[in-house]
Amino acid sequence: NDVAADFFTSFIGSMLEPGPQIEQSIRELLAFMHTTSEGNEIPDTYLIGLQVRTGRNDEDGSETEAFPHQDWLPNFVRCAYAATPLHLRRPASRQDAQRVVWLVATDSAEGLGRIVRTLGRSEGAVVEAWTPTNGVLNDLGAKMLQFDSGARVVTLDWEETTDATSQIASLRAQVVMWALSHCDLLVATVGSSFASVGRAKAHSRNLNSGRAQGQA
To answer: Whole-structure pTM over 0.85, yes or no?
Structure first.
């Protein structure tokens, strides 16, 4: 194991905590991801986080070479499917399929569209879309898409930061960053610091789980 990486992720996970506004927004987002369009709670939701950093400028099409090219983005989905428990990857019922929620965090509207289309090849067409009734989540641009299979995708609008949107954009970024730490499965972009909190929290959970098993 990389001792330096282990120290860094443990340090991030133990030293950083969200402020009250961020924490409240995270709770509301997690509650949104655990409910249907009718407001019914779905128990045992399995959250899959995709953090896809492209470095793409959607206006002129330029991309940062350090991050994955658009054509490579479907591999994030394939990687997540490969790591998802078999009974959820091949659900026996629609009820099982509805347990799966994908939280997609990306810096490109085109990249988001590509990921949704890739998911649609396995989950079917998008049959329903809705937004939360909560004002804060609406301000953050939260949206839920449901596929024909019953699986769902949650996104928060990404947009260029301007003077008028800088505060809400900052809040959105922090909420998504921390929400990724609550995912059961996280597939993140190598070299992107945006998923550091998620990786740190996952690393901390694995360490604690290992200690608990060792004490059992």
So the answer is: no
Q: Which pairs with CB-CB distance under 8 Å and at least 24 residues apart come from 67-74?
A: 67/189, 67/191, 67/192, 68/189, 70/108, 70/110, 70/111, 70/114, 73/111, 73/114, 73/115, 73/118, 74/114, 74/115, 74/118
Token readout for 193 is: 């610091």
Assess contact for 32 and 182: CB atoms under 8 A.
Answer: no
136 token code pair:
């804060």
Assess contact for 163 and 42: CB atoms under 8 A: no
Amino acid at 213: Q
Average pLDDT score over residue span 55-76? 66
Distance between first and last Cα of the chain: 24
Tens digit of pLDDT for each residue in 134-192? 778 888 889 999 999 999 999 987 654 444 457 777 788 888 888 888 889 989 887 77
Indicate the length of the chain as a whole number. Answer: 216
Helix (H/G/I), strand (E/B), else coil: 197: helix
Task: Kindly state the average pLDDT of the residues 28-45.
Answer: 87
**How many helices (H) and strands (E) are present in the chain, helices listed first?**
9, 6
Q: Is the pLDDT confidence value at 16 over 70?
A: no
